[in-house]
Fold this sequence. Notes:
Distance between the termini: 11 Å
Shape: elongated
Strand order of the largest sheet: 1-2-3
Amino acid sequence: GPPGSGKSCTIKIVSKRLLERGGTVFYADSNPGIVNAFLGDFSRIEKNRKCIVILEDFDSLLHKYSEDQYLQMLDSAKSIDNVMFIATTNYPERLDPGIYNRPGRFSHVVKIGLPTPAARTAYLQAILKNYRDVPTIVERSEGFSIDHLSALVNAVYREKKNLLEEIERLRKLFKVPKADDTKAMGFGMGKE
C-alpha cells in the first residue's frame, strides 16, 4: 500500500498478538542466507514456538541482496514448521510476480490502502480525548493517510493551530489527493 497507510502499524499489532501467545518475531533486514541459517537453528531449538519473520520494504531488500537470494530463502523456509513471513512494500509494481504469485512463498497478498471514513473515525477516536472534532476531520480528510492524520492531530491539539487551515495546509504541502488512487498501486491483486 501507499506510504503512511498503516502497514507498519498492522505489523506491530500482529507481532504483539503473537508475542502475547508466546511466539517470536524477527525483523529480517540482513543477508537472506544468514536469516535462513538462523531460522533453521531456531526451529531445531524451539520446535513448537510460532515465529513471524518481518520483511519490511521488501522491494528495497530485494534490491540490496538480490531477488535470487530471497527466493532461495523463502523456498527453503517451506521445510521449517511454524514460520510465517510478512513482507511489506510501498511499490508492489516493482516486485516480480514470481515472488508473490507462487504457492508456498506468500499465501495472501493484501492491499492496505488509505483509511476509509470508518477507519479514520476509529483512529481519531482512539487518539483524541475529545471527539467533538472527529466528524469534521473525517469529512475533510479524504485521501489522508494515518501519518497525515497524526500530523494534523499534533498540529491542532499540541501546537494549537486552526483545524480547517491545517487540513488544507497539509493537503497542499503533501499533495494529498481527495480519493484513494488505485492506479498508484500498479496492479490488482484480487479482492481488497
